[in-house]
Write a structure and sequence with these properties.
Elements: H1 2-5, H2 23-30, H3 35-43
Length: 65
Amino acid sequence: MRIMRTDHHNDNYQELYFVIDNYEQLFDETTPDFTPYYEELRRSAPIPAGVVLPTDRVIFRRNAV
């Protein structure tokens, strides 16, 4: 849900990227029917692009220039 709630810039480099461990994880995460998630997303506020939440696992953070 975190990925689906996150706004993005389509005309700029993203400040935040989501990383998967392997293709199996990708397939496992995208196999379920997403219909129930859509209703939850409609009730949830979007997360602004570049915001790191306390529950995120940061792998690398570039220093601001």
